[in-house]
Amino acid sequence: MKKRKDPPGYPGDEAILKAFGDALRDVRIEKGLSLEQADAVFQEALKKDLYPRLPRALGIVVRELREKQNMSRQQLCAASGLSVRFLSSLERGQASNATLTQIVRISFGLNYPITDLVTEVEAVEKRLRSE
Predict the structure, then answer these.
(1) 79-110: per-residue pLDDT in tens?
(2) Smallest Cα–Cα separation from 79: which of 111, 123, 48, 103?
(3) Backbone angles phi, psi at 4, to 5 degrees
(4) How far apart are CA 95 and CA 105, in angstroms?
(5) pLDDT category of residue 3 using cuts at 50, 70 and 90
(6) Fewer CB in a 10 Å sphere around the end CB: N or C, the chain?
(7) In Å, how far from its chain's centre is CA 47?
């Protein structure tokens, strides 16, 4: 299996997952929830599907950002360490199983702040839901 090339400045999948876990732990503690309570809240939220158009919104935003930078999918593939097949699927709104690390890799590959990416995806998802 071919090893993925990390985007420039990317701290690695393990560091991203650790940072995310630390952030979740901090929120859980701030809310005064036990692990079991936090897991129950998470499981209940999964059932509700609060963002039904999220995969499509992510695809729209990634394509727009990539095209604004005059970047081909192949170039984003090389910059993010992800496959062209995955990126193509994502841009068509068919990557409902995109992982946190894949999304962060795209952000790094586009040299675009992850917080801005998430904000834009959320706005597009809200617009799609209201149409």
Answers:
(1) 999 999 999 999 999 988 899 999 999 999 99
(2) 111
(3) -70, 145
(4) 15
(5) low
(6) N
(7) 20
* Whole-number Cα distances in Å, 39 to 16, 25, 35, 44, 46: 20, 11, 6, 9, 11
Helical H runs in 1-131?
13-31, 35-48, 54-68, 73-80, 84-91, 100-110, 114-130
Total residue length of the chain:
131
28-32's contacts with Cβ under 8 Å and 24+ in sequence apart are none
Q: What is the mean pLDDT of residues 102-130?
A: 94
pTM: 0.83
DSSP 84: H
